[in-house]
Amino acid sequence: MYSDHSPETTAPTRLKIGVSSCLLGMKVRYDGGHKDDAFVHQTLADYVDFVPVCPEVEIGLGTPRETIRLEGNPAEPRLVAPKSGRDLTETMKSYATRRLEELAALGLHGYILKKDSPSCGMERVRVHQGPSMSPARVGVGLFAAALCSRFPSLPVEEEGRLNDPVLRENFIERVFAFFRLQQFLKAAPSPGNLVAFHGTTKMALLAHSPKHYKQLGQLVASGAKQLETTLEAYTRLFMEALKVRATRRKHANVLQHLTGYVKRSVDAEDRAEMAATIEEYRQGLVPLVVPLTLLKHHFRRHPIEWVLSQTYLNPYPAELMLRNHV
Ligand code: SF4
């Protein structure tokens, strides 16, 4: 059975997210401080077990410690402590290989990294290319690069980007979707089960990427012979699809599609109200939660099994209130 992770003996009941330790308030930064992040540490903590990792402390650098930075070729930078001249590149790379295997055994469902760090930064990390040049913001922290390469389908995001409501909602949706996918993969799936699993994700996929929606549909339809290969391709394409930004236009199309399922059960006034609310959402006048709440109200009164099975309606706990801001 394909999985990005080694199988666990018992299925987890809570999500497991790897996180740069300093974001949880741990005093592991070079200056002895932390970067406690309220959304990570407090809001998500109700739903998630965190796995804190501080690569710099774990390779034996103390706290406080000399600052380190990326230097040289941005495509293959060195990790250097400029004051002492120590080159930590190979130490960090071999640590990352070892540590990521430990994390694979835990079965993570997402990872939150600290931005700008030469170890943890996911993008736009400063790379110093010589005394006469300003550092270019083109690098990736060495541990972050190894993480993304080892787990290509794992949802990974930086804490800075999570301040953007759209990126935040997208990341959390991906984390919960990955959790459901991993649970499905662990349960010895058959081609029939894959068809059923895929069936529940259709509206979510359509809101992100109609192109992937079509590709995944074709993959599932042809998946009976080479199940292992199909599941591997499904995982990659599925997570790739959810990474594509879900725009208001695409959400509006999905909402209109769902409206079609109740149009014969409601009267003209209700139909007009739904159409007007979806249009208000499409124009950016109200957040996504508004048309969705109205639609859910009608589906409660006129339940349709296939519609109610859609993860699109409840992609993560409503208490996170992320759709109030997109
Ligand atoms: S950014 Fe990464 S390496 Fe730096 S203190 Fe935080 S967890 Fe440690």
Strand and helix map with partners:
Layout: E1 15-20, H1 38-43, E2 48-53, H2 55-58, E3 69-71, E4 78-81, E5 86-87, H3 89-106, E6 110-113, E7 125-128, E8 136-139, H4 142-150, E9 156-158, H5 165-186, H6 191-208, H7 210-221, H8 227-243, H9 248-259, H10 268-282, H11 289-301, H12 305-308
Parallel strand pairs: 1-2, 1-6, 3-7, 6-9
Antiparallel strand pairs: 3-4, 4-5, 7-8
Iron/sulfur cluster is lined by residues 20-22, 28-29, 54-57, 114, 117, 119-120.
Q: Walk across the major sheet and give the strand order.
A: 5-4-3-7-8
Q: What is the β-strand count?
A: 9
Number of helices: 12
Q: Sketch the topology as an H/E string, one letter per element.
A: EHEHEEEHEEEHEHHHHHHHH
| Overall shape | elongated
Low-confidence stretches: 1-12
Q: Main beta sheet, described?
A: 5 strands, mixed
Q: What structural class results from the helix and strand content?
A: alpha/beta
Percent of residues in beta strands?
A: 5-15%
Helix content: 40-55%
- Ligands and ions found: iron/sulfur cluster
Instruction: Please tell me how large the radius of gyration is.
Output: 22 Å
Distance between the termini: 36 Å
What is the residue-averaged pLDDT? Answer: 94
Task: Provide a descriptive summary of the structure in words.
Among the domains are: 15-164, no CATH class; 248-324, no CATH class. The protein is built from twelve helices and nine strands. The protein has helices at residues 38-43, 55-58, 89-106, 142-150, 165-186, 191-208, 210-221, 227-243, 248-259, 268-282, 289-301, 305-308; strands at residues 15-20, 48-53, 69-71, 78-81, 86-87, 110-113, 125-128, 136-139, 156-158. The strands form two sheets. It has a five-stranded mixed beta sheet. A four-stranded parallel beta sheet has the order 2-1-6-9. Helix 3 runs parallel beside helix 4, helix 5 (165-186) runs antiparallel to helix 8 and helix 6 packs parallel to helix 8 (227-243). The two termini are 36 Å apart. Mean pLDDT is 94; it is low at 1-12.
